[in-house]
């Protein structure tokens, strides 16, 4: 079945899902999510790449992470089909919501993801910041991942400190009995933190699904060639 036929036909197998988190903010979660979406589209068909909560509007009035993900979804999605809460302040989402007088509604986020997953072959849900970033006084992205019961993919930005951040993040994921689909090594700068990748390949408790070299202008299609799909999807 070619791509056009897969887009026309409903999924014949259970939805493949991932919750994409990172060791920190600015480690390349959106770039990795977009690349995976491109890979999924080639091999499966209909893919939804979602970022239900985003904060930090840019000077042109856009949220670039959402714009990237809606464009790489297959078929492309509208902004409102990609993101539920878009917050202006460039700070952690829960605090950005406080500043604008909003409460991030846990049930609405879950329902949004469920609705946007309908009829898809795969859905990728990207968090904001790291795994334990709060979404309210008593819940976080870790709790959202638990609600969804999606396998978790950890994006590791290779820089000094990444070993500790990656191992702590993996420990937090596994402590919640969530399946860890794997991790992706993202080179944030050329030749940074020698030995970090080799150490993580030895110590991380899940497989490395790819190593993305430093490429400031790389497209999602280009990056997708460096990634493997999770074995838990087989």
Automatic annotation (TrEMBL):
One of its GO terms (cellular component) is cytosol. One of its GO terms (biological process) is biotin biosynthetic process. Mg(2+) binds at residues 30, 65, 126. Its cofactor is Mg(2+). It holds the Pfam family AAA_26. Gene3D superfamilies: P-loop containing nucleotide triphosphate hydrolases (3.40.50.300). It is an enzyme of class 6 (ligase). InterPro entries: DTB_synth_BioD (IPR004472), P-loop_NTPase (IPR027417). Pathway: Cofactor biosynthesis; biotin biosynthesis; biotin from 7,8-diaminononanoate: step 1/2. Homodimer. HAMAP family: BioD. This is ATP-dependent dethiobiotin synthetase BioD. It comes from Acidithiobacillus thiooxidans ATCC 19377.
